[in-house]
Amino acid sequence: MSPVLSLRDATLALGGRELWRGLDLDVEPGTFVTVLGPNGSGKSSLLKVVLGLRGLTGGTARVGGRAVRRGDRRVGYVPQHQGYDTDTPLRGRDLVQLGVDGHRWGLPSWRRSDVVADRLQQVEAEHLGGVRLGRMSGGEQQRVRIAQALATDPTLLLCDEPLLSLDPRHQARVVDLLDRRRREHGTAVVFVTHEINPVLGVTDLVLYLRNGRFVLGTPDEVLRSDVLTSLYGAPVEVVRRRDRIAVLCDCGPEELAG
Ligand SMILES: Nc1ncnc2c1ncn2[C@@H]1O[C@H](COP(=O)(O)OP(=O)(O)OP(=O)(O)O)[C@@H](O)[C@H]1O
């Protein structure tokens, strides 16, 4: 069986700059891949490649054995998000309904209330179906957005910083929901974040991008002082305390995945 996602010798350059080169990645069903790296290292661009929105400069990208393409129902996407205006008229169930209808532009739409209710239930948000998005907390909005991304029952879920501006309790809840989804449905997750700690316990693979280079492996293989020192070209110290990690570097103000 083909991996859910497969990149072979994948290279991406944007604006005359190479973001990563020679990336080989196979993501099997149910795998949780965490993508780390400083601002501008190409994390979101990687998701856009998998969504068929951006072409590779070299190599191939396949989803379930087929070349990536736009509007693939097997791929769910939770884009980066800054919150909704308080006067946004959409309610929770409307947003999920958009996920159901999204792939059927031009065809008659009908209410798939069973699907909408099921997806809201999967993220423990049944009570938010009738609530306007602008009246929800950040964590509630994020859960409804995940329900929307699950509307087509995807085999692969791409999440772009879904923990942004959530407090630790809400972060843990979102991570827990994604973890349950991949365990119960085998949905693979590719999760872009700046913070490793909230997802450390569920991460199978870490892809760490930086300045045209990358390292890929299990958290124990990648989140090591010697490996990150080599990636950053400057002394990096990885300190583990209980189930948390701190990444310390003398490389200036550059952001690290603490
Ligand atoms: N359409 C484009 N044309 C040229 N350059 C682009 C384009 N889109 C993005 N870039 C550049 O590509 C680089 C990677 O952007 P990307 O958004 O993938 O980074 P990122 O790692 O997700 O960053 P962040 O952590 O800030 O979200 C950035 O330097 C960005 O300015």
Automatic annotation (TrEMBL):
Residues 5-236 form the ABC transporter domain. PROSITE patterns: ABC_TRANSPORTER_1, ABC_TRANSPORTER_2. The keyword Flavoprotein does not apply. Keywords: ATP-binding, Nucleotide-binding, Transport. GO terms for molecular function: ATP binding. This is Metal ABC transporter ATP-binding protein. InterPro entries: AAA+_ATPase, ABC_transporter-like_ATP-bd, ABC_transporter-like_CS, Metal_Ion_Import_ABC, P-loop_NTPase. PANTHER family: METAL TRANSPORT SYSTEM ATP-BINDING PROTEIN TM_0124-RELATED. The keyword Zinc does not apply. It comes from the Bacteria. Pfam families: ABC_tran.
